[in-house]
């Protein structure tokens, strides 16, 4: 097949990990006879430096025309004043909104070879296999904001339609997994959560084969630690999802390992490792490219329908995690390029 | 000294754990020659059943006249419909607001004898000693809410004055501890967080002896697991505090162990264990009273200025945690009354 992929390397280690992910995609394309065209554009801090805007119009236009978008990371100390008018994260939020990617999928598994890196006890990590579905284009992230000298406000807003579509996505994904959806809200306090809960409950009736459970966000923050293997698909609103997925990511031993896929109704998906721009190690060639490479696998699966190729990449990554080489964040000594090459070499072993 | 303490047992295990805490306070009073008068009032589900309201006027009046208020827990399956007009938690939110207790203190230490119960690896738990200061009377909990068939909104609002007072409280507490405050917000997305961050930064200048660090709430959710011993005082807004303190509570091995104190400018403090009403074990005499007993110790310290008596209770609890008896939630077989009696007996050993 032919596909057009826009890459948005962004800032910090973003370009380094994206280079590795693109190399893996090219290796897969070559083996399977696909043609992937890559086109790189600016986003985040580097875009602010070059154009004054965190999401230049040219970038957005290219993304809209692409089959999929692969993003590195945005931000860094140079642009880190949260009071500044123009900030790198605005680019990220703007592209999520513009592409309408309302469902952010963050799978979490703990590779057995890396259990020793997790802060959690080994017995807790057995059989952990969670898929977070975080609502990504609503809530307090995109609500009205006000600010005076004395006061600030953020409005969290959800419509029934916004909750319905992300709920359906979660239930459809649960069908292909262990048929269990946990919906997280704060319905004992927030009105948006009460709307969330009643909508999720109603949509759940369309999926009688899937079990629905509700949890309050504070309890869920605890249960992720005490009973992580109990959960299958966890669906929640934007801000709760931001917090819970980062908490869960700590379980995996390193942020550098975890991918994400952001999907809407349209075909253009946005794929990014969940780690940030890691300015402390940027430019040194030591960033772990696994999160970006696994994001590329999700791209093949969800935007291009290439399930076999996606599984092959995931198997190759698992092979490398089991046998090495390992990057520094997971206790090894290898750099980004070595990990990239090892994953590419493993594509043949696992095929 | 003479003091008037209002008890609000509430629902579920609330009455059982409060009985134990009151017995410990009475034992301390007898030993030290104090006179504590206790007066019990309704709150939560039982108040709804008796009066139709989760916080009856008589309860509020009594609390306002008291020297301190000791609360058990509210809620239970009988009143658990989040869409209901009248809910037990409304009583809790209303009393927090009415007493103006804007600073919710939640200390977290992991007793060495209980490290095996924590989901976290033992080496991570060493030297964990965190004091959360959660803003308790602002934010989305108390902002305007709207609801139509199609849409719901919650407004999160903070004024500079609200942030200033809780920040000062956090810095004052840090002075007596390890001189380190970590302020948690989501300043890369929320306007209220940007106001929070600039206010905290400004107030910090009044405390040059205390080190200030800012963390984003998503990073903090991770750092609590990967580097819990790095933190001293953590100050944050209401909803983030709700989530992070529950996450942190999981580290202690059981929710049943942890106390809280809610303080305002006035003298009336509100003290409650952080566990809920635990309807599954209510009425069986097996609830762990340690969270309530330690809340009573905080009451002596913060509302009555009885530091020695507070420390004595804490030492007695530590003695019981080290030597037993242990309640079921921490792997033992003893009931609420046995733990209560053991703590009271230990008051003499540790004095
Ligand atoms: C960078 C930030 C705006 C972003 C978010 O909060 O969504 C990040 O934390 C994430 O989770 O992708
Ligand atoms: C019961 C609920 C309203 C309450 C809160 O969210 O504040 C509880 O979770 C707490 O932390 O005290």
Automatic annotation (TrEMBL), chains A, B:
Enzyme class at the top of the EC tree: oxidoreductase
Lineage: Bacteria, Pseudomonadati, Pseudomonadota, Gammaproteobacteria, Lysobacterales
Residues that coordinate or bind substrate: 96, 106, 134, 218
Residues annotated for Mg(2+) binding in this entry: 218, 242, 246
Names of required cofactors: Mn(2+); Mg(2+)
Subunit structure: Homodimer.
Catalytic activity: (2R,3S)-3-isopropylmalate + NAD(+) = 4-methyl-2-oxopentanoate + CO2 + NADH
Record's keyword annotation contains Manganese: yes
Alphabetical list of Gene3D superfamilies matching this protein: Isopropylmalate Dehydrogenase
Pfam families: Iso_dh
Entry-linked HAMAP family: LeuB_type1
PANTHER family the record matches: 3-ISOPROPYLMALATE DEHYDROGENASE (PTHR42979:SF1)
Alphabetical keyword list: Amino-acid biosynthesis, Branched-chain amino acid biosynthesis, Cytoplasm, Leucine biosynthesis, Magnesium, Manganese, Metal-binding, NAD, Oxidoreductase
Location relative to the cell: Cytoplasm
Residues reported in the UniProt entry to bind NAD(+): 76-89, 276-288
Site entry (Important for catalysis), positions: 141, 186
SUPFAM superfamilies per record: Isocitrate/Isopropylmalate dehydrogenase-like
Keyword S-adenosyl-L-methionine: no
Manner of cofactor binding, per the entry note: Binds 1 Mg(2+) or Mn(2+) ion per subunit.
Name under which the protein is recorded: 3-isopropylmalate dehydrogenase
Taxonomic superkingdom: Bacteria
EC number in record: 1.1.1.85
